[in-house]
Specification:
The protein is an alpha/beta fold. The protein contains 18 helices and 25 strands. Helix 16 links the parallel strand 23 and strand 24. The longest helix has 22 residues. 54% of the residues are buried. Bound molecules: 2-deoxy-2-amino glucitol-6-phosphate (AGP).
Length: 612
Amino acid sequence: MKFEVFVFLIIKYNYMCGIIGYLGKKPVVPILLSGLKRLEYRGYDSAGICIRENDALRIIKKEGPIKMIEAKLNGLQFTSQTGIAHTRWATHGRPNEINAHPHSDCTGKISIVHNGIIENFQALKKLLEREGHTIKSETDSEIIAHLIEKFYTNNLEEAVVRAIKLLEGTFGLAVMSASENKIVAVRRGSPLILGIGEGEIFVASDASAVIEYTQQVVYLKDNEIATITENGYSLKNINGESLNGEITEIKWTVDEIEKDGFKHFMLKEIFEQPKTVANTLRGRLGSREIKISVNLNPKIIDKIIITACGTSWHSSLIGKYLIEKIAGIPVEVDYASEYRYRSHIVGPNNLLVVVSQSGETADTLGALREIKNCETLGIVNIVGSTISREVNSGIYLHAGPEIGVASTKAFTSQVTALILLALYFKKERTGILDQELVAELLMIPEEIQGLLNQADKIKEIAKNLTAAKNILYLGRGINFPVALEGALKLKEVSYIHAEGYPAAEMKHGPIALIDENMFVVFIINHGPIFEKIISNMQEVKARGGKIIAICDLENDVIKKLADYIIMVPAVSEELSPLINIIPLQLLAYYVADLNGINVDKPRNLAKSVTVE
Ligand code: AGP
């Protein structure tokens, strides 16, 4: 067995989970199950429910995806109307039934579900074991149940408050007890919302789990404690002071979180992009102005720092090219996980831009919280998310819910928002609105639609890549980050090793990888470096590499060099990433689907990473 050798630096792997809870008049088990299914994209290695029946708690757990616990619950009788549930992504402890949530205390009278990481759990575990508690699982989460047991005197809220004061780390937490019909929910770092219904209250990690029941939600802030009873809910801070929860109306419909006849959410979301790019543009492109409301003075901005993770980092890199070219403002781009721990050279006339689809990614939030002395702006998709509430101003993508773990429509909407931002700065600083680019931008949704009509052809090309072991993606200038994103999409959903590179960098090393087994995807658009890329293609061909060309210009040389050509419409360089990424998203999708992979739930990944 050929081992691909990877060098691991000291990295702690943490991911995230989905929590759902309900207290109301309806049978709780069907509500918990449908909520878990909606949250499954957040983690899917094991799941469990806890319901309260006849002053006792009943916990049922199962390793594997939601359909496993659904089968286990099938045929069992339940009368309860109060319960909590959890779908897990393992951080501490293998994915198995014992480590699955909910976890309970020694008496079985306290039960908890937790999303996040307790960093001081080893110390607390030792303390609790010294006091005689028996910890059954390998998880950090279970100790929370025992801590609450330690402080429990028939007032669950009070015991939860005392317990969380000892916790270091992050949590979205829902707690139940056998002797009180209530759910206590609290967050610090991990997202948690309340769903407000008629005579019923939901608690969940995100709104997608409750919108089939209510569109009224309250986003809990850090250290806010919600107590849910038959009489509704109360909100307090950690000092016991009452709070008024701000109710937000969710604009999504249930249809938007359904697959609409597509095999996978990823494919649906790729095909949604003509609409979602138009949504990001809607109401923002005026004939004389760019209408984005950012409460900062664009004239004094002297440097922009953009920080993000994953796909959002790739769109941020494109943002650098756009803002520097269109608005002439210097831009630095950094991985949020690196930027947050670096020494920050930030001046009062700088602007920190954070880009995040979910608005909950811990590293991006962490980087944002590091910067105090300049304006901050968020480019975010999820309305009401933590990042959107902590920046000074922001641009919502309006791309609708993105369920597929591999981000697609959020990427094109992020790039669109960054183009708008660049045009806005130019207009505000020079008085000039680039009408030509604006007119072309308005045509992009149609251009993307035209490209999507080539899906079958791209699927045919994908058939040749299903057995590939390694693929290189090469682009130049503003399309170098597109090459990075194309490679990430393939890695994420097909598990084939892929790397994105600036095409000219290839001869400084990666060219050594090229032989007749290596596929190389080139992004080659008309423009000043067209010929340069042709020579890069010749370097690959000379070493037997197989070439797939994403090209916007009919060219005989390319016809000779490339094994497969995907023609794309020719647009301005600034807009070309919105076009070139579409065939790369489809290529990754079809390679993975043809290899029988569950594209929406790729292994080892979850939708947004809410812990460090
Ligand atoms: C992209 O397909 C991945 N899901 C991942 O890289 C993602 O882009 C990253 O975790 C950042 O997420 P965010 O945009 O929600 O902050």
